[in-house]
Amino acid sequence: xxxxxxxxxxxxxxxxxxxxxxxxxxxxxxxxxxxxxxxxxxxxxxxxxxxxxxxxxxxxxxxxxxxxxxxxxxxxxxxxxxxxxxxxxxxxxxxxxxxxxxxxxxxxxxxxxx
Amino acid sequence: xxxxxxxxxxxxxxxxxxxxxxxxxxxxxxxxxxxxxxxxxxxxxxxxxxxxxxxxxxxxxxxxxxxxxxxxxxxxxxxxxxxxxxxxxxxxxxxxxxxxxxxxxxxxxxxxxxx
Lengths: 114, 115
Hints:
The structure holds two protein chains of two kinds. By secondary structure, chain A is mostly beta strands. Chain A is about 0% helix and about 55% strand. Chain A contains no helices and eleven strands. Chain A has strands spanning about 5, 10-15, 20-25, 30-40, 45-50, 55-60, 60-65, 70-75, 85-95, 100-105, 110-114. By secondary structure, chain B is an all-beta fold. Chain B contains no helices and eleven strands. Chain B has strands spanning about 5, 10-15, 20-25, 30-35, 45-50, 55, 65-70, 75-80, 90-95, 105, 110-115. In chain B, the strands form two sheets. In chain B, strands 2, 4, 5, 6, 9, 10 and 11 form a seven-stranded mixed beta sheet that branches. Chain B has a four-stranded antiparallel beta sheet with strand order 1-3-8-7, with no helix packed on it. The radius of gyration of chain B is 13 Å and the shape is globular. The model of chain B has no long low-confidence stretch (mean pLDDT about 90). The interface between A and B is medium-sized, with 25 and 23 residues.
């Protein structure tokens, strides 16, 4: 069964700091991996999607990497801002009985202090 | 372009009562998903539709939950009767086509509280 783990569960940093969020998955037979952002009381917003054949994707201050063989992904946020405060969710498609559906981690709650 | 629309945004009911949630996906999106998100957890898929066909409902508790997507556009998720443990956020998402390669777009969710 595909399982997704995110570390740390919560993170608090001062504004301007660079930070890394970690995601690991147990079955490397994935189609893709996505990073989402969720604000309190809101739905999820897709930030980056990395296909299984890709190593990384970049969007503005965000960079996501994928090492499929080791079952790991990182989300790098450069020069963090208070507006980046949210919960960041990692999800994979494929692997371990998922039937091609998205399997989510529990998320990392990020707080960026002014 | 309008995003995924869900209603109601909040619902408070007493246990054993019925409740229904409505979702309107992004125009042209053939695939529609219903997810359940408990506090502090990631979303878990309940059911996935390809047009009007439910292609994966393996995680839907069929004794009390039902869903429909008439005409392959809007969808309704129903719980009857509701239990205390059903208190959660119910998210709807849609994607253009093949789920393995497409980004899913999520609605704001319906927050259900069962008393």
